[in-house]
Amino acid sequence: MSIAPILFVTGKLAEPALREQLEQLAPVAGFDYVVQVMPITVAALLTTDWVSRRIEAPGPISRVVLPGYCGGDLAPVEQAIQAPVERGPRDLRRLPEYFGQTSSRSEDYGRYDIEIVAEINHAPRLTLAQILQKADALRADGADLIDVGCDPGGGWSGVGECVRALKSEGHRVSIDSLTPSEIAPAVAAGAELVLSVNSSNRHAAADWGCEVVAIPDDPRDLESLVATAEHLEAVGAAYRLDPILEPIGCGFAASLGRYIEIRRRFPHAEMMMGIGNLTELTDVDSAGVNVLLLGVCQELSIRSVLTTQVINWARTSVRECDLGRRLVYHAVARQTPPKHLEPLLVLLRDPQVSEFGAARLEQLATQIRDQNYRLFAEPDGLHLLNATTHLSDEDPFRLFDALLQTEPKNLDAAHAFYLGYELAKASIARTLKKDYRQDEALEWGYLTEPETSHRLSSKPVQSKPNN
User: Fold this and answer.
1) Phi and psi angles of residue 383, each rounded to the nearest 5 degrees, phi first
2) Residue 358 burial (CB count, 10 A)
3) Average pLDDT in the chain
4) What is the C-alpha separation between 375 and 385, in angstroms, rounded?
């Protein structure tokens, strides 16, 4: 028994683009469709009450998909058509995503087994209130343990109070120090992990009664790490091994090799990688670096990472690691490249950029019957269209000057501000090869801040529906 088609509702302006999209999408997504073009130019100005009085089905339908901007209660449309009604995406170019065609995620996507240890650097220099505030923010972003970073030289008398305060707020805590006199009160107050242990302080590890992170005396001296691990084994202390990741230019590739070697020598040992040594010390946005290092950890079964977010380009590393650990877990578990799975980690550029093209824009220009401005960011420049105008230029200032020379009657101060704001977004989109959609926020992955469409909410120059 075949499933009845889906009825898509649109306006005159978007009809050609919708039909072209559906022609490609329907066979892939597995549905049949029919389209009803409402007697209105701009579909974004539709309301459900208005649609309910005009909607018609050519026969049995399975559901109705309205334009995403169509405002109002869906119930009148459902009563009029006697079928389920839903709003689709605001931009019809997002229909493939709406029908689940751009992601390779499985139903269990989101699992992970890498623990995030997030360090609060120079904790002795902060007030207790500042430490608790930072810890709450780190936990909200995905941190599993809050690492209390002590200053070199030791001697922080407030470390016990700090750990107790964090524990009282429900945080799991680690202590980052090499000084036994600083570590002991932290452990007594509830710290469950000590960073770090080498030949200088391993004699005290058995007294702490908690897990420790073993590091080499010198990053290039792998045998010193092995000796510390053997000592910890002998005294019955639980440990994780961290050969130390070194920055690019200081032995980065060789340090990666040491992680591989330690995994070969200790196939079942717990391991940690301090990924902040790369994100904080490399002039590049941290998201890609974090995901790459997490991929290394996942393949080597390194189940914990230590990260910091001090320098501005790495200030969201914990959130990136939380998203990234899910991505690499899925990739390794499924033996599939980590592609088309986590759009929230694609920040600077978009996965794909839609283009209308010169022919489509010329067609749109002939169909517009109102004075509302439509903006498009195309490879050849920025385009501004309404019923009487089609201007284009690569420079938004020249484009606006050209608009002023037409002496538009609808360009008051508020509208000019709106166009300036949208032109700035469109220009950024062209510069970075991002997708621009008028009245919507540019997509910055997990950093995206949704926008309210002021043009559509106020409708300063409305196009009235035709009867």
Assistant:
1) -120, 135
2) 13
3) 92
4) 7
Residue 362: CB partners within 8 Å, gap ≥ 6?
A: 390
Query: If we measure between CA atoms, which residue out of 194, 126, 136 comes closest to residue 161?
Result: 126
Q: Does domain 115-345 have CATH number 1.20.120.290?
A: no
**Could you tell me which residues are beta bridge partners of residue 36?**
9
74 to each of 2, 64, 78, 98, 216, how far by Cα in Å? 26, 10, 6, 18, 64
3-class SS of residue 149: strand
Question: What's the CA gap between 391 and 389, in Å, rounded?
Answer: 6
Where are the domains positioned within the chain?
A: 6-99, 115-345, 358-447
Residue 195: both structure tokens together = 């960073």
Tens of pLDDT, residue by residue over 389-444, are 999 999 999 999 999 999 998 899 999 999 999 999 999 999 999 999 888 889 99
Kindly calculate the radius of gyration of the chain based on its CA atoms and give it in whole angstroms.
29
Q: Of 45-59, 142-156, 259-273, which has the strongest mean pLDDT?
A: 259-273
How many C-beta neighbours within 10 Å does residue 414 have?
11
Is 163 a residue whose pLDDT tops 70?
yes
Mean pLDDT across 10-36? 89
Helix (H) or strand (E) holding 27: helix 15-29
